[in-house]
Design goal:
Blueprint lengths: L1 E6 L6 H10 L6 E6 L7 H8 L3 E5 L8 H14 L4 E5 L6 H9 L7 E2 L3 E4 L1 H10 L1 H9 L3 E4 L8 H14 L4 E3 L8 H6 L22 E8 L2 E2 L2 H12 L5 E11 L2 E8 L2 E6 L7 E7 L3 H7 L5 H7 L11 E3 L3 E2 L3
Helix pairs in contact: 5-6
Length: about 325
């Protein structure tokens, strides 16, 4: 079993890249997702859109506090499913050097690591290097391939060229793709499953485990909003730090009779229609978050909701919120 790690900071576009990767090759890998939050809102997206087997590891970061579970998951997948390839998507706040080191501890003749890929959003690069320098450098230094994501959203080619130059200076040996990867031929994606080695083993000033600043996460099940406008207003408030310093928010909520998917990263957000069978849930990661206020904004209920659940509309027992203090994260 060959392991391909797709790393990158929160909101870089790792899941979207993995989806494209699976569509552009005949390879059917198993995917192991590591979510920082208590619920995995991306699991069904990959399952429904790729048809692949998706395993999840939530609440612990596989580069530090969850490394034992990570090793056990790898061995379990290898000994039960035994796929030819395993794609690992670490939490966006984990150090790539530690993830690769943890993989090396379970490598033997039947398990080996491929050259890791790091996904970077060029629009968020400057802010990320300023606030999370050690983490960003670690991802860059230890990547065999660096993919600039969301290039279609960056209209200034000078920004992309400058970011590419800075990445080359940090890691001269990395292959850097600075154009929209969706325009690449299938061979580009196939080669990612062929490149072994090239892990530099550089710490990038990761520091000792447990020495990282702590973030909190809030996970709301069965999230809902009264209207599209209300959800848009909520996303705007998140950008303006109304509920704390939010660095990542994503999930699916019920708006009227429809399901909408909302996604916020750095200074941008988007909302799209969700599949009818999508699971409702919303995850926010940041600092000094107002948990109660967030819960109230995402717990709108209607008479139709009450009829469907068999509860009075004021009953919020189907809503749960999780806060994890002093968890491993970088910002």
């Amino acid at each position: 079993m060959k392991i391909l790690v797709i790393s990158g900071f929160l909101g870089a576009g790792k899941t979207t890249f993995i989806r494209e990767l699976s569509e552009r090759t005949d390879i059917k890998p198993v995917i192991l997702e590591n979510e920082y939050a208590s619920i995995n809102v991306d699991e069904n997206i990959l399952k429904n859109e790729t048809g692949l087997s998706v395993w999840e590891s939530t609440e612990n970061c596989i580069c530090c506090s969850g490394k034992t579970d990570f090793a056990l998951n790898i061995l379990t997948i290898a000994n039960t499913i035994d796929p030819e390839y395993l794609i690992v998507e670490p939490t966006g706040v984990g150090y790539l050097s530690r993830v690769m080191d943890n993989i090396s501890k379970v490598e033997y003749e039947r398990i080996s690591a491929l050259s890791p890929v790091t996904v970077i959003d060029p629009v968020s690069f400057d802010r990320g290097m300023k606030l999370y320098k050690d983490l960003y450098r670690d991802h860059i230094l230890n990547a065999g391939t660096i993919v600039l994501s969301k290039c279609d959203l960056c209209r200034d080619m000078d920004v992309i060229n400058r970011v590419k130059a800075e990445l080359s200076e940090i890691n001269p040996s990395a292959r850097i793709l600075s154009t929209d990867y969706r325009r690449e031929g299938d061979d580009f994606f196939k080669k990612l499953f062929e490149e072994e080695g090239k892990f530099n083993g550089v710490s990038g000033n990761a520091g000792p485990e447990g020495d990282e600043p702590g973030f909190t996460e809030v996970s709301v099940l069965n999230a809902s909003a009264g209207s599209v406008g209300e959800l848009v207003f909520f996303m705007e408030e998140l950008l303006r730090f109304r509920y704390g310093h939010i660095i990542r928010a994503k999930g699916t909520g019920k708006v009227g009779k429809e399901l909408l998917r909302a996604d916020l990263s750095d200074v941008r957000y988007s909302m799209t229609a969700a599949e009818e069978n999508a699971s409702r849930g919303f995850v926010l990661i940041g600092e000094e978050m107002d948990d109660k206020a967030i819960l109230m904004r995402l717990s709108y209920s209607t008479d139709s909701d009450a009829a469907e659940t068999g509860r009075d509309k004021t009953d919020k027992k189907d809503m749960r919120i999780f806060g994890k203090a002093d968890r491993f994260a970088i910002e």
